[in-house]
Amino acid sequence: MGFTLILFLFLTIIVEPSISALVKQPPVLLNYHNGAILKGNITVNFLWYGHFTPSQRSIIVDFIHSLSSSSTPPPPSAASWWRTTSKYTSGGASSSLLLVGNQILDQNYSFGKSLKNAQLAALASKLGRVNSVNFVLTAADVAVDGFCMRCGTHGSTPGRTNRFVYAWVGNSETQCPGQCAWPFHQPVYGPQTRPLVAPNGDVGIDGVIINLATVLAGAVTNPFNNGYFQGSAAAPLEAVSACTGVFGSGAYPGYAGRVLVDQTTGASYNAHGVNGRKYLLPAMWDPQTSICSTLV
């Protein structure tokens, strides 16, 4: 079974900050279920399904490079966010270095513009299979089963041989930005706060970054559905999905938390990346402190 990402699990009533602060939230505890996790050199492969501009692809590829960059961008950095995954261990060293691998452009929509789940796995199978996560990224005009109820998923093929981990994230710019591109778009449900300005100037792609980060962390720490998660294995809360809606300190339903703001563009972000990029990354559960950790 693959991980199902439901981005918007917010309350459907408006809660005043002073009241919400008094509500006792159940503790987050991701248990380790004795399965394999991905570590070492992990290749991230991409199949771009539909039309993505070179600029859009560059934003996403730069994000992967940012997670394992040897350069030193100003803090807080995307690489420091990713280092939290090294605390998820199955015994022995668990640090991982992400490498961008194969990239395939499928601009002719080889399976049409409406995809089933099985077709996502078939597309991902065209990419590498050894210690990799194969991402299928679908363009804004591509429908996928369950899209908007989920913004991305990860899973693995069955069996012991030729098994590989795959993932999918869709560009929600025109289909459901209020669910899958929040906080860069007005939410469909819950408190109606003003949207933040997307750091890369593209609501759909900056939303993809949030969901890609969520799915990638889950794929590495729970690749075969027996790693780190809370709740049902059929619909688990994972490293980032356990912290849904939190981007900075002081977050509450409808408020992403205190984040940084670019004084020139007004864009909101909480992480620096390579090539001068800025990203807004979701909180990740820290197994050493058992809290949802934010960069700011």
UniProtKB/TrEMBL annotation:
Record-annotated membrane-spanning stretches: none
Q: Which UniProt keywords apply?
A: Apoplast, Secreted, Signal
Where is this protein primarily located? secreted
Q: What is this protein called?
A: Protein EXORDIUM-like 2
Instruction: Name its cellular compartments.
Output: Secreted, Extracellular space, Apoplast
Protein family (similarity comment): Belongs to the EXORDIUM family.
List the GO cellular component terms.
Answer: apoplast
What span is annotated as the signal peptide, if there is one?
A: 1-21
